[in-house]
Amino acid sequence: MRLVSACLLGVKCAWNGESKENKEILNLLGAGEVLIPVCPEQLGGLQTPRVPSERKGNIVINREGKDMTSYFIRGAQETLRICNLYGVSEVILKEKSPSCGVNRTYDGTFSDTLVEGKGVTTELLESNGIKVISSEEI
């Protein structure tokens, strides 16, 4: 059993109200794997659709310049709580997201520039011993 970014399963929860459906991950369901969908940004209290956000150092800002860090921290904490409730030790998260990025995130300039770094949820999960796999590694 693993948690997975809900957008990867076709749930329309991305910032723009769309999904990021990933056929390889959907194939895991077809193979009988149990996948629990989560959207840390929604769990943190953000609506869908929403103004896009990017990580800039230790803060998350939206395109309007508003500090959204507290929502992302709350979503990460709730995702960790779900992992603990179900005994999940491995999750698959959407690369490049300020919540879920595993190896890369956008740099906070809203110029489509990627930098090495982790999303807020990935950092919290890994610091609690949970293995996080990038959606691009499936």
How does this structure look, described?
The protein has helices spanning 23-30, 40-43, 69-86, 120-127, and strands at residues 2-5, 35-38, 53-56, 59-62, 90-93, 104-106, 114-116, 131-134. The strands form three sheets. It has a four-stranded parallel sheet. The mean pLDDT is 97. Strand 3 and strand 4 form a beta hairpin. Helix content is 28%, strand content 22%. With 138 residues, the chain is of the alpha/beta class. It has one domain (2-137). The longest helix is centred in the middle third of the chain and has 18 residues, at 69-86. It contains four helices and eight strands.
Quickly list its features.
138 residues, alpha/beta, single chain
Could you give the topology of this structure?
Elements: E1 2-5, H1 23-30, E2 35-38, H2 40-43, E3 53-56, E4 59-62, H3 69-86, E5 90-93, E6 104-106, E7 114-116, H4 120-127, E8 131-134
Parallel strand pairs: 1-2, 1-5, 5-8
Antiparallel strand pairs: 3-4, 6-7
Kindly summarize this structure in a few lines.
The protein has 4 helices and 8 strands.
